[in-house]
Specification:
It is built from three helices and nine strands, in the order ββαββββββαβα. The protein is an alpha+beta fold. It has one domain. β1 and β2 form a beta hairpin.
Length: 121
């Protein structure tokens, strides 16, 4: 399962060994200045949209890049019965290709609080 941590002024997402081929990376670092919105999602499997490059077991897990052909790419690692954070990004600030991260993590509340605290300061 992917992990998310706030380190300094950056959001660090690290993918497990089996997720890495599906997302084409071991990790992603995003400046907190690029975060436009963050929200907790209880049932994240239904929030993935568009065409995909990645791994899918219907109703259980989705890992990869979604949104192909939509103009709005999502980097996804979500599981059934594990809440997720939906992080909307400003691509101009992040310098990346993703407009949204959708990541299941047991520490979703903690990460959301840390991002909110950094944004307020």
């Amino acid at each position: 399962m992917a992990t998310m941590k706030v380190i300094g002024n950056e959001l660090h997402v690290r993918f497990s060994g089996w997720e890495r081929p599906a997302v084409w990376r071991a990790s992603l670092v995003v400046p907190l200045a690029a975060v436009r919105r963050i929200e907790g999602i209880d049932k994240p499997l239904g929030h993935v949209r568009g065409g995909r490059m990645g791994f899918l077991i219907s109703g259980v897990v989705k890992v990869g890049v979604w949104g192909l052909g939509t103009g709005s790419l999502q980097l996804v690692s979500v599981r059934r019965n594990v809440g997720a954070l939906r992080v909307t990004l400003d691509r101009k600030v992040s310098g990346g290709r993703f407009e949204e991260l959708l990541i299941s993590t047991k520490s979703a509340d903690k990460v959301a609080e840390e991002i909110g605290a950094r944004a307020d300061s």
